[in-house]
Amino acid sequence: MRGKKRFISLSSEEISSLEQGWKQGKSSTFRTRCHYILLSHQGKEISEIMDFYQVTRQLVIRWFNRYEKEGIEGLRTTKGQGRPPILRIDNEEEMNKIESLVEASPQSLKVVVSQLEEELGKSVSVKTLKRVLKKKWLSDNFCDNFIFGNT
Q1: Is residue 141 scored above 70 in pLDDT?
Q2: pLDDT tens-digit series, residues 54-109
Q3: Among 36, 38, 45, 39, which residue's Cα sits nearest to residue 15?
Q4: CA 113, 118, 119: angle at the middle one, nearest 5?
Q5: How far apart are alpha carbons 53 and 36 in whole angstroms?
Q6: Range 122-131 contact pairs with CB under 8 angstroms and sequence separation of 24 or more
Q7: Tens-digit pLDDT profile for residues 10-32
Q8: Could you tell me if 62 and 77 are in contact, meaning their C-beta atoms sit under 8 angstroms apart?
Q9: What is the pLDDT of residue 151?
Q10: CB-CB neighbours of 69 under 10 Å
Q11: 98, 111 contact by CB (below 8 A)
């Protein structure tokens, strides 16, 4: 066995909030992280937690450290994880350009995609373009029709 044995001691309030997070948390990763801490409090060693969840020692230690530093909020996945979007509907300059290109050739999105690549320097698939246009259309129509009562 490597290293020192490490356990996390918890107060009754911390136990109840972690149990609630473990049972009712939104994401499975958050629930799993809460369970890591609860298992440690129950006397389970890091190696036992590793074997149970099939994860590395470094991962378990990282979440122990984050919990000790930030509390239960440290177990949540932080914003900004994952790949950033290629096109954003809140970028007005890009969206105006896309709308003008679509209006110029509404029957062929392949043409729009190639023009986007030339003018914006962004490689976009037809599927991505469709998703962005749909999202933009839904957000615009939702605001116009439902919030302001236009029909």
Answers
A1: no
A2: 999 999 999 999 999 998 898 888 877 778 888 888 888 888 888 888 888 888 88
A3: 38
A4: 95
A5: 9
A6: 122/86, 122/87, 123/86, 124/86, 124/87, 128/86, 128/87, 129/87, 129/98
A7: 888 888 888 998 998 888 999 99
A8: no
A9: 45
A10: 8
A11: no
Return the structure tokens found at 38. 């609860």
Say how far apart CA 132 and CA 75 lie, in whole Å.
Answer: 32
pTM over 0.70: no
Backbone angles phi, psi at 146, to 5 degrees: -95, -40
Query: Tokens 């050739």 belong to which residue?
Result: 105
Task: Quote the tokens at residue 39.
Answer: 């298992």
Domain ranges for the chain:
12-75, 92-147
